[in-house]
Known about the structure:
The protein is of the alpha+beta class. It has helices spanning 4-15, 25-37, 95-113, 134-137, 192-201, 243-264, 286-297, 311-317, 341-354, and strands at residues 42-44, 50-54, 61-66, 78-81, 84-87, 121-126, 148-154, 160-165, 167-176, 206-209, 212-221, 231-240, 267-276, 279-280, 303-306, 321-326, 338-340.
Amino acid sequence: MTSKKQIKDTFFDLIKIDSVSGEETKVAFYIKRYLKRIGVDASQDKFGNVIARLDGYGEFLALCAHMDTVEPGRGIEPVVKNDIVRSKGETILGADDKASITEILEAVKYLKIKNIKHRPIELIFTCGEEKYFAGSINLNYKKIRSKDVIVLDHSMPPGAIIMKSPFIYNFEIKIKGKSAHAGDVPEKGVNAIKVTGDAISELKIGRINKTTTLNIGEIKGGIGINTVPEEVYIKGEVRAYNQDSALRQIDLVSKAFKKSSRKHKARYYFKSSLKCPGYRHLRTNSLIKEIVLVNKELGINSKFIDNAASDANIFNKKGLNSVVISKGGSNPHSIRESIKITHMQKMISFLVEICT
Ligand SMILES: [Zn+2]
């Protein structure tokens, strides 16, 4: 079993390297150097994702974690007390997803040092996961031989297996009315804020049903209180486990703004895009069955849960069989983020086991 000290050392090295999305170069360099020291060659594709392969016997398996973090993620100072690691309180901890990188690196090191016979393993460390999976979207898939990919990117104690993830659509709307002096000739203007308000009041916002949500998240418009506002920009998103349900909401939003624009004689521009393809796994999925079996062997309780998006959404869309599991940790994307070193230790045992 890998010692807690060794886990802590590697984890601290990683979280002390700032790697906010788009700035992953230094952490990629650390990973490549670490792997080189244990005799594993790693390279980067054009986008900056780190890819490595270890020859072995049997079926290929890929392990994936992302290298980037969210803000506030600069100058992270870890504090450890009774097995729990936290940041000092002004930044995130970055266990999302550097705990996973640590677990993968330590598991591979263990296999190498102990000279344990293992299956062929591929390692994928992505850039820009927090920016709508930029790294996995731009990954050089020609370099990947595995059909199965385990993505370590869920903040819960070991054992969680993600069964489904929603389709996420973003939309952007621009309302173009007409400016006029608000006091002298308001009747000559077309108030884009009024158009927006009327459209939004027609919509159900928030939770639409058990599996669908709609959010208007940003509104910008108007240039002064004595001017009839000419332009308003609106941004929002729809999430749904069912693609048709997501598209239905997109359609309702578009229609509401169209109707209101017509009524007030404003112009309207609407754009929507699929930001994240959803997926749904069955319990009979071969990789899930394998994960459950290893969990059982190690005394880890398997928990089947639903979750938001990750690189696995892109991998599944690309035709790979990708399952997200928990890596330990709690409160990601917050200054209260923490992780137990014993949970990371457990995950290293899990990875060693599933690779052998
Ligand atoms: Zn993450």
